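User: Hey, quick favor. My workstation is busy. Could you predict this chain's structure for me?
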Amino acid sequence: MSEQCLIAEYESVAQMEIALEVLNKSDFTLEQYSVVMNADDPALRQLEGESTERESESPPTSGAVGTGTFVGGVAAAPLSAATLIGPFMILGPLVGMAAGAAAGGVLSSIQRWGVTEDAGAEYEKRVEQGSVLVIFHDSDESQVRKADRLLMTTRPRSLETFELSE
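Assistant: No problem, here it is.
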């Protein structure tokens, strides 16, 4: 069995929101994907403001976790779960991995999913320039193929699959 990773690169937070909506509607969970974006992205600040406004307008429903939502209510992931590591805002399983690898580059931690060091560095550079990444990972190849098909419909700038054989 091998761990697989799929990286979808988007030009904007709005495009990433659509991708997360597609994944969530297909029953994928935050345990299966991470989001990486530039912490200085103006769209992130706008989302934080919208989230705060929505929060004050309506109380959380039962089962709601944390305060606010990461992407304007589309994703079930709470903003409080997102972590600032260096110049990046990271949400999902990558947070724990990236925290330990921050000195060697935040995205170098995804080498365990088969992403080469050079590819990780290139993606990191793209995020610094404004790209937003959705990183899907699973050991079930059929889940990765399904996510690939779904994310392809969201018109990412790039979509690449990596595999690490054990």
